[in-house]
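Box S2. Input/output pair 1.
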Amino acid sequence: MTQTSRRQYESLADAAERTGLSIRTLRRRIAMGELTAYRAGPRVIRLDPEDVDRLMVQVPNFR
């Protein structure tokens, strides 16, 4: 029996809490096309956590 992996999604509030970003920042990134959002109805927006994680980039050391 093979097991298929289901994509996991999170709400804007969950993504904001997990990353320390604001919901407003996430919405701005969606509007700018930097973050893909998925609709699950007229008012429900979900994000792929991996897409949100890709927004976070390492800052080089300052010296």
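Box S3. Input/output pair 2.
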Amino acid sequence: MSEADMVSLMRSKKCLDCGEIKPATEFWKLKASKDGLAYYCKSCFGVRNGRYYRKKQTSLGKQTRAYRRYSDVPDGKKYCARCDEIKPVGEFGRNRSEKSGYTTYCRPCHAAAVAEIRVRNHGSARNYLLKLRYGVTEQQVDEMIAEQGGVCVICLRADAKHVDHDHLTGLVRRILCFKCNGGLGQFDDDPDRLRLAADYLELRGSHARRMRIELGAPVFGGPDRVRWDPFWRTKGNSLKPARHYHRRQRYGINDDDAEWLLKVQMGQCAVCFDFPAEHVDHDHVSGAVRGMPCSACNTGMGQLRDDPITLRRAADYVEGRLVQMVAAEDGGTRLSLTVPDVDPATVPRGGWKALWEQDGEYRKQTLPFDEELDMPTWGALGPEGAMSPV
């Protein structure tokens, strides 16, 4: 401590308001006064300022709380100006820009204040988040949903609720349902993996061919295996791990079968062959085991309803081949989501079923490199089951 500070601590002064003699540290500095200190102590100075502030606010028709000195707040606590309560500092968020290091309001009040600001500046919290994350407004999203007829553009079954965007460009693509949006994420927006999964489910991919070579059938096992395969039993009388009995009851295979299947697949996913196989996959109708996919492919197929048509539509969607803009009857433009082409806004809920199989056959027979592709002009299925142009 310097000599000047020591002298300042030893000095004292009489406050002109309260009349008490207090140390110089209880007075603010004021160069205009002879002794360099304010005429009133800090407590009285605060009361004066508070009285002037409240008088001015009252003249403006505003209400204010009663005056309270900051020094009245005990150590380890902080005053929340919104709920007018003194709370422990643990109930306040961190804010490095504040002198105290904490937010002005406690956590509940801070959240409420932020929500009010978002509604005031952006109309709603949803509108704020849409603009922040995707660069679109709530009105634009509602217009896109109306253009789609209110349904997800991929599965054409569930309500369109989730904004989907290209993770590379950040541009919004369309509005999807929760399952289709999640399924795309599981497949990393990879159209090739989506089409491989569709072939896998139809037992027409490379894994199914390998199974036919090894077993003579593309699937094996199933809950009824005990009845049709009398030689299939647990070897020995020793107890097996719980996983063994779980697989035996649910899939009709045991640990030895799973190890054999992993060996056939060389330890890789039966769908994409890019990641290690982790889960037993089975047909939910027959119960027969198809193979062992990785976690992402297994979850992605489940979210896309184990439906090859949905998977191929998802692949075309990712590549920009599913949703097309075509000329409308009123001279404008509208969306086209299927082949044969219909206006999505005119299709009632549940009315897509008649078009589903035709569109699925079209997706199955066409690939991205087909140059003669002209989606709006394709018609119904021909006599041999192939799409014929109108």
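Caption for Box S3: The longest strand covers residues 37-41. The domain at 3-59 is CATH 3.30.60 (Wheat Germ Agglutinin (Isolectin 2); domain 1).
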